[in-house]
């Protein structure tokens, strides 16, 4: 039996260097279209390089194949949610739920504090339901529509949505990542949340101040004429009313009641379909093909909204793009990207290439500040390489837990750091499951909105500053000094 050799630093560096080179080339050649095929090829080619290194080191193909399949299965729950979110957006456009949210937002929100208000609103919703994904797919989509009407920048709005959604998700006891981090690090959930407040709240406040300044200095707002024009388009094409928000209320209620995301979103999508049949009869009648009965045409249109989204022609090209989209088919490219990314990450982990980097880092991370900074860098690196925020929490958590204990650092320091580096940075990477999802929902490339997701950028930096200054770093008796009570 051939013995497996330990991976070297050069082994680990080769596939990562190839990936960085190919992804950079992909963005240069294809720009915003890089996530629609080029990035997937880059990930697959880099995975092939990692497989070759694994075979060289003594792994069998069957072992590597099994690792890739296992890595992909990690994402299947997210893929199911992703597909159902596509169905939800389609039926919520047809039902008038999203158009009504846009309409009321245009009437109520002042353009000058819109960015900050968007951030706060998404934070409240995500804190209540524990899901940044659901928040972005519902409130986030509507806020992008409102920003169009107010003459504001959609990319900045996306940054505000991401900032608020991930602030609320990070602090919500209902969030999967908020429960996962302390479970990996060995800390208590509510101790973990309390300890996160010290880095999370100041980061959020700084982000809000920036959004307020940007809002008051934005050019071309308010555009009263454009707001009235968009409002009239919505009223002419949809039945707009407060009752159209019932599907949203149902979804948020189910999430607060801790129903799993997939059935909750599925029920929300079905409510949207029912609401469309009840309240959007005129809209549906105008879209039924000639020669088709009203019953069959209605059934066909609602069914299509679930699998292929909704499309409308209003006479205004920007509004057509805003009010069209969704459907499960619209999420297939994102699914393709997620599968390719997780294949690469799974091979890198199986062959031991990620562990090589951590071992090298620990040799130079002598102080508490450098250890926490290294943990955050590893989380970000795992998000880049393994392309999944769960892996960016679990893998560094397993790798660093013993070192934190040896150095007398309480487990809450590690669990907080895992979120500061892993959870927060995941939506900023286009090929990460979170980044790919946000692009499919918000229709904005993460490379564009990343520079405006101020909370997500500030939080890791503030955590590193705290670490080097020794602010709110809880200590325990180092593991090697602990004595037995026996």
UniProtKB/TrEMBL annotation:
Family from the record: Belongs to the NhaC Na(+)/H(+) (TC 2.A.35) antiporter family.
Cross-referenced PANTHER family: MALATE-2H(+)/NA(+)-LACTATE ANTIPORTER, MALATE-2H(+)_NA(+)-LACTATE ANTIPORTER
Lipid bilayer topology: Multi-pass membrane protein
Transmembrane segments: 12-29, 41-59, 71-93, 113-134, 141-167, 196-216, 237-256, 262-279, 291-310, 330-348, 369-387, 449-469
Domain Na+/H+ antiporter NhaC-like C-terminal span(s) in chain numbering: 164-471
Ubl conjugation listed as a keyword: no
Alphabetical UniProt keywords: Antiport, Cell membrane, Membrane, Transmembrane, Transmembrane helix, Transport
Organism of provenance: Pseudoalteromonas spongiae
Cellular localization per UniProt: Cell membrane
Keyword field contains Protein transport: no
InterPro entries recorded: Na/H_antiport_NhaC (IPR004770), Na/H_Antiport_NhaC-like_C (IPR018461), NhaC_Na-H+_Antiporter (IPR052180)
Lineage of the organism: Bacteria, Pseudomonadati, Pseudomonadota, Gammaproteobacteria, Alteromonadales
Residue ranges of coiled coil: none
Domain of life of the organism encoding this protein: Bacteria
Protein name (database record): Na+/H+ antiporter NhaC
Pfam (any one): Na_H_antiporter
Major localization class: membrane
């Amino acid at each position: 039996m051939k013995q497996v050799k330990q991976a070297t630093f050069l082994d680990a560096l080769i596939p990562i260097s190839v990936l960085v080179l190919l992804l950079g080339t992909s963005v240069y050649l294809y720009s915003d279209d890089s996530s629609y095929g080029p990035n997937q090829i880059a990930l697959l080619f880099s995975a092939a390089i990692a497989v070759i290194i694994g075979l060289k080191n003594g792994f069998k193909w069957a072992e590597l194949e099994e690792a890739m399949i296992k890595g992909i299965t990690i994402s299947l729950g997210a893929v199911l949610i992703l597909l159902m979110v596509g169905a939800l957006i389609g039926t919520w456009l047809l039902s008038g739920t999203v158009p009504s949210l846009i309409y009321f937002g245009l009437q109520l929100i002042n353009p000058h504090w819109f960015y900050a208000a968007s951030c706060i609103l998404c934070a409240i919703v995500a804190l209540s339901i524990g899901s940044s994904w659901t928040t972005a797919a519902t409130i986030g989509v509507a806020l992008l529509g409102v920003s169009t009407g107010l003459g504001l920048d959609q990319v900045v709005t996306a940054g505000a949505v991401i900032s608020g959604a991930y602030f609320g998700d990070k602090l919500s006891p209902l969030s999967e990542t908020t429960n996962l981090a302390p479970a990996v690090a060995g800390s208590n959930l509510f101790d973990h949340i309390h300890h996160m407040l010290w880095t999370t709240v100041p980061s959020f406040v700084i982000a809000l101040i920036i959004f307020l300044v940007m809002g008051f200095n934005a050019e071309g707002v308010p555009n009263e004429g454009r707001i009235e024009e968009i409002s009239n388009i919505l009223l002419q094409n949809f039945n707009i009313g407060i009752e159209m928000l019932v599907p949203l209320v149902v979804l948020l209620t189910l999430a607060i009641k801790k129903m799993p995301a997939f059935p909750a979103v599925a029920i929300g999508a079905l409510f949207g379909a029912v609401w469309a049949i009840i309240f959007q009869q005129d809209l549906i009648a105008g879209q039924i093909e000639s020669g088709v009965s009203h019953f069959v045409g209605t059934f066909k249109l609602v069914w299509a909204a679930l699998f292929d989204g909704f499309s409308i022609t209003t006479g205004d090209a920007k509004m057509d793009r805003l009010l069209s989209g969704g459907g499960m088919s619209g999420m297939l490219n994102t699914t393709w990207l997620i599968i390719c990314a997780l294949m690469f990450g799974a091979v890198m982990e199986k062959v031991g290439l990620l562990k090589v980097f951590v071992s090298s880092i620990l040799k130079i991370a002598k102080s508490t500040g450098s250890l926490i900074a290294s943990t955050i860098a590893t989380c970000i690196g795992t998000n880049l390489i393994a392309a999944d925020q769960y892996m960016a929490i679990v893998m560094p958590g397993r790798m660093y837990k013993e070192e934190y204990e040896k150095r007398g650092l309480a487990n809450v320091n590690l669990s907080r750091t895992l979120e500061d580096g892993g959870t927060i940075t995941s939506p900023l990477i286009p090929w990460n499951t979170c980044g790919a999802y946000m692009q499919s929902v918000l229709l904005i490339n993460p490379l564009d909105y990343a520079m405006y997701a101020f909370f997500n950028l500030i939080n890791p930096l503030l955590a590193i500053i705290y670490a080097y200054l020794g602010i709110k770093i809880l200590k325990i008796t180092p593991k090697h000094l602990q004595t037995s009570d026996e």
